Hints:
Structural class: mainly alpha
Low-confidence stretches: none
Number of domains: 1
Shape: globular
Helix content: over 70%
Number of strands: 3
Radius of gyration: 19 Å
Largest sheet: 3 strands, mixed
Order of helices and strands: HHHHHHHEHHHHHHEEH
Amino acid sequence: MRRAYTPHETLxxxxxxxxxxxxxxxxxxxxxxxxxxxxxxxxxxxxxVLQPTGDALDDAMMGQTPLSLxxxxxxxIFLTLGTGVAVRLLHARGLASVLGPRQAVIRDFRxxxxxxxxLGIVVALLPPYGMGAPxxxxxxxxxxxxxxxxSLLALLIQTSAEEIVFRGYLQQQLAARFCxxxxxxxxPSALFAFxxxxxxxxxDNALLVAIWAGVxxxxxxxxxxxxxxxxxxxxxxxxxxxxxxxxxxxPDSLSGLSLYTIDIDISDPDTLHxxxxxxxxxxxxxxxxxxxxxxx
Length: 296
């Protein structure tokens, strides 16, 4: 395992200059405070311009309109900005050092994304056909196509921001301080899972959804350590969210940019318990495909 994670030193090395634990806690506070402040400002500006009321306000808050979802996804750039401020002020690093070598990031992102597109096509061609629940048309195809470039950009902002915070800043600074992967994989993955614990939406299934997110975080941490850059993790995260937000989304939230919606209630235990084994299996397949894609 240690030999497999040798490339991780490319990311961890710059983090060793200032590795005190208080800096990590302070950095986390800076990231959260920056994101919350700027996101609140952006939300206020959106409300001031659009002044939605009633059902329109609910739809905007849940990302059920194209503009509101673009704003929600684009707002994740504030996490990236907060990370840039934290690493500069507290660790004497630049944001580029969190991502890894630029050419390697682009190369591995491209390799992983193409591998996952291929995997998705193969899975779609194999039986059983369909997704169980019926698909419902959401955006008109022409509208969806016109929005697609900006949708992909917003999605890239969102997925890269989460990777920069969890598999970037937190993982690297913890790895600089602690040798054991149990800590530098486990702690960011647990925090990532906690961020996806949403009982309001998932009801009694919230814990199961959070566990899924925690496992996903651990697998992305593994890819990051093996590659020595965030390209593979961003690639997997981007492909996963592309499928779940831009292609086929749930109807109740984050559906503003999707071509189709699928009528699944994630708060229903029976429904989710039948879907989760498939989701876990697909997640493992994506991780394995990404590992193959980045083999030197």
